[in-house]
Every structure is written in C-alpha cells, then in structure tokens.
Amino acid sequence: MFVSAEIIAVVLSAVGIVVTLGTSMFLGFAWCVRRTDAVEARLGARIDELDHRLGARIDELDHRLGARIDGSEKSLGSRIDNLAHEMTELKIAVARLEGPVPHLLTRSR
C-alpha cells in the first residue's frame, strides 16, 4: 500500500494543530489558575491587614465608650436616686397638705 506525501503532511499538520491547541488551552488555563491564586493571596493579605486594623480600632472604641458609659451610668444613677428621694419628699408634702382622708362621708340635704 502506498500513501502519498501529501496525505502524510495533512495528517501530521492535523495532529500538530490538535497538539498545539491542546497545549495552548492547557497553558492558558494554568496561567489563569496561577493568576487567580496570586490575586487571591494579595487580596487575602490585604483583608487580613484590614481585619486586624479594624479589630484594633473597634477594641479601642469599645474601651473608650465603656469608660464613658460607666461614667454616665454612675452620674445618671446618682441623679435618679436623687430624683426618687425628692419625689418621695414631694409625695409626703402633698399628703400633709391634703390632710387625712375622711373615712365616713355623710350626705347633707
């Protein structure tokens, strides 16, 4: 059996094209994966840094606000206690002004 040189050239060209396209697609996919990993590593580092900075800032604000809330709570607590004492004195004064409540009411005609 005799195969012409043109047929061999066409078959080798087709095999070459298939191998070239397959290799190109594989290398392109590998490049995309490598690139994605690099971007993910960079973004992961930035996110970790921002998370650390934000955590420190929140802790600082929590400490500052905690101190302010404690001071305000003490101040408000003393004011409420003072107001409760004054309200009790006011109730006693009003009760003295009104006098005792009559227990037996008679109707006058």
Query: Low-confidence parts, pLDDT < 50 over ≥5 residues?
Result: none
Main sheet characteristics? none
- Mean pLDDT across residues: 88
| DSSP strand count | 0
Sum up the overall morphology in one term.
rod-shaped
Summarize this, please?
Helix content is 86%, strand content 0%.
Report on this model:
The protein has 109 residues and is mostly helical. It contains 1 helix and no strands. The chain is rod-shaped and about 145 Å long. The protein starts with a helix and ends in an 11-residue tail after the last helix. The mean pLDDT is 88.
Topology:
Layout: H1 5-98
What tags apply to this protein structure?
single chain; 109 residues; mainly alpha; rod-shaped
